[in-house]
Amino acid sequence: METISVILLLLLAVVLSGVLARMLPIVLPLPLVQIGFGAIIASFANFRVELDPQVFFLLFLPPLLFLDGWRIPKDGLFRDKGTIIELALGLVVFTVIGVGFFIHWLIPSMPLAVAFALAAVVSPTDPIAVSAIAARVPIPKRLMHVLEGESLLNDASGLVCMRFAVAAALTGTFSFTSALGTFLWVASGGIAIGIAVTWGASLANRWVARRFGDEAGSQVLVSLLIPFAAYLLAEELHCSGILAAVAAGMTMSYVERLGQSLVAARMRGGAVWDMVHFAANGIIFVLLGEQIPQIVAAAARSHGAIWMIVYVLAITLALAILRFLWVWTSLRFTLFRAARKGKAIMLPSWRLIAAASLAGVRGAITLAGVLTLPLALSDGTPFPARDLAIFLAAGVIVMSLVAASVGLPRLLKGLELPPEPSHQEEEDEARIAAAEAAIKAIERTQHELGLGRSDADLYADASVRIMDLYRQRIDGRLQTGEEAELTRRIDEIERQLRLAGLRAERDQIFQYARTRRLSDEVARRLVRELDLLEARFATG
């Protein structure tokens, strides 16, 4: 009962923190509000959540990373793959070495291997935190794609570096050849397992559906189980469960393009995954806030409060400086390669480079990773500076969130950005092709349904009415210049009028249901139809 009560309290805290974030007079990213809410709960409530890192990784990270891999725009990911790999691999190693030596210099009592472990665990950026920041700050789309791609891939490199740093602290030895081989196995094995699990589940589900029929609920449940299966299988084979979950999600986006799932499954799945994302994402940051008081208390036993704050600020600043240097150097190298190929280049403002550096916020990966530090060395003595390392990692998470939420709006305000590529032409072409396919299908179906019937003219009249709508859509999309702009304005006016009509319909149905002039079952069905139509027109 106590565990259930804690879970319900955490979910309630997620809801209330969202309300509080909207009520605040200043704009704060939701994760910061949730962290503060968690700290308040820990101060007043009489419970302490024992955060097992292994359970934490299993419950929260697979579904969230799976969803990020599923929904991340693949065209942007592959277009900037070189930059993303440089950040996800090169920057992590650069950070581990640079920040590791800096931490050891700053805190001589912390052994160098432990300093490297701490640097490794704070090196990965967090896709969940990045998405949360982007929801409140207008980050350019291309920069956001790079940040999301980087944060999806750098978890494995950071955690592998941490694993070897911890091993060096436990044994006193380190082998570069062994580390490189292990990293290649961990990364490639995790990616391969994620792809295999998703494709295997899709093929099995398709085989069952062809022979025994399908049901929307089972498809949604399978999609929820895939990230856990990929993660557990990868961990069992000593590969990266994180990369397996990401690869499974990216593969799911390609499986989805086959269009073989039920319409109801896609609709329900979208709603279910949105809820999972909202709840799990919120609980992560509420839990972080709930852990902060005891983390501070444990670290304060051996270090003064002032020095701990200085350490956090210094490490956060060092991370930002190294990231700025790497991003600037990487960008120069990318522009040099583009110039060698004869491409037109546009030198971005230093403010955009600074924004890319500041947007590298830390989150759940850092917290869960630092909590996996062992309690004792091989000889049974306590692991050196463990409490301090946990405090510093938690402090870096909070400071990176604060710095991004405060600094990004100022850096990006009034900044002239390179124009984003327009996909209007692609959309018009796709809509025209879809409308032409629909007309052909309607004509074919009308002939099949009306063949040999005495009322065949009714089928012909109905098909003409429907095909006229598609022909209007084609004519509107084929126009160019001022005519195209006028058509789009008319479409927008029509959309707003349709939305007004649909909302009025729904209000009237609710009124009929309240006065018992309509049964609940019929009212729910009608409202669902109107909701689907409104969702279609609300997206333009």
The general outline is globular
* Portion of residues within helices: over 70%
End-to-end distance: 47 Å
What is the number of beta strands? 0
Membrane topology: Multi-pass membrane protein
Subcellular location: Cell inner membrane; Cell membrane
Function: Na(+)/H(+) antiporter that extrudes sodium in exchange for external protons.
Family: Belongs to the monovalent cation:proton antiporter 1 (CPA1) transporter (TC 2.A.36) family.
Walkthrough of the structure:
The protein contains 20 helices and no strands. The protein is mainly α.
What descriptors fit this protein?
single chain; 540 residues
SSE blueprint:
Elements: H1 2-23, H2 30-44, H3 53-71, H4 74-79, H5 81-106, H6 112-122, H7 127-136, H8 141-171, H9 176-212, H10 216-236, H11 241-257, H12 263-300, H13 305-340, H14 350-358, H15 364-371, H16 386-412, H17 424-450, H18 456-478, H19 481-514, H20 520-538
Helix pairs in contact: 1-2, 1-12, 2-12, 3-10, 3-11, 3-12, 3-15, 5-6, 5-8, 5-13, 6-8, 6-15, 6-16, 7-8, 8-9, 9-10, 9-11, 10-11, 10-12, 12-16, 13-14, 13-16, 14-16, 15-16, 17-18, 19-20
